[in-house]
Amino acid sequence: MQTEIFDETHPLQEVLVWGEPGIEALLGQLLPKSKSLFFSYYDVQEARREFRHMQELIEGERIKFIRAKDALARALSAREMPNAPKSIKEIEQKLLQRADEYYETYRSRKIVDFSNEGIHGDIDEVYLQVQNEIKQILQEDASTYGEAGAIRLNHLLSLTHELPLANIFYGRDQSQTLTDRIVLSALKWDIRKPEVDVFKQALIALGYDNGFVQVDHGTIEGGDVAVLGDTCYIGVGARTTMSAVKNLSKKIGAEMERQGIQIAAAVNKRHAEEAALYGAPTEEHMRIMHLDMFWIPLTHNLVMAYSHELDQREIIRISRNMDSFIIEELGGFREFLSEKGIEILEVDEAEQKNFATNLLNLGNKTVIMALSTNQRVIHELERRGFRVVSAELNKLVNGYGAIHCLTAPVRRKQP
Hints:
Layout: E1 12-17, H1 23-28, H2 33-36, H3 44-60, E2 64-67, H4 68-77, H5 88-116, H6 123-158, E3 175-178, E4 181-184, H7 195-206, E5 212-214, E6 225-228, E7 231-236, H8 242-258, E8 262-267, H9 269-275, H10 283-287, E9 295-299, E10 302-306, H11 307-310, E11 314-321, E12 324-332, H12 333-339, E13 343-347, H13 349-353, E14 360-363, E15 366-369, H14 375-383, E16 387-390, H15 403-406, E17 408-412
Helix pairs in contact: 4-6, 4-7, 5-6
């Protein structure tokens, strides 16, 4: 399998995803927000239907849709896993037991979460729903992957670690295609850290078994990385650290420069300092966790951006000279874009919170947006000649991410 991403705006040919959320996401509904990294509750079965609809939309655009989850389930079904349950009944019992443990441990904290967010729900009813849907989804998985695949996949995702890998369906963060290489991320929060190794197993099963670049210092997440023109922009703030950007530059910076691409960090210094100290993300950090939460390329000379956050960011260019780094402070993000002749389509706070910038760019002035409620933004794009498709991801966005977070392009056609 070949990878090729030289610009976020080139026509999309192949996209990697994890797959729809499963039992691991159900279990995540019983965790407090500080651990799950979700809004306090969303309907997982509805989210699964939304994901499948999104897949239909993307495939309808004649784009190859590659599901890492399916590849891993096939690989696991042929692999010995001595610690995994031996039957569907046994794993069902273990999953229900894990749900009991989370419910008993975190019930009082979930009640507080519901109250703080104005959710008129009952955690006891959510718990019963989770129990029922564990059984339903497990049967669906057995039908899709066979019993061995379903058992081993759900054991890996929901039982192997202290916390379920409830966020793994946001399949951009674990890896990022840059030029013809796949960069494996280093995720910040405990619930997400194991996802990288799981994705690596899936990538190998899919045939992407050469060219991995492993970031081994600091943290970096795929939603913070995008190439536009001659620049690879990397957001530094709530999730990605400057030390990881330097580590990436050390490993592939020279290679990217040979391709005519420089590495530039878009830094929110306050978020970076806070993230180094806090034991859990703040609401502000969740809302602006990644570059794609406030900034996205549309064409070679047009980006969409949330004005307030854009003006909080400073651009720092990182390059290498022999064994040392060259660090250049280039001023504000807005001014940097302006100097490159890049126009900014600005969105306001409400539109940013409604995931306006978190869209999937298919190239050729076609985009898929998560929600149709951003009517002003849609009309402005259409006025500029874009074709806008709405995926209607009303439940999936309750993990603080939208369609850009769900998809990881692995091949875009160079003009």
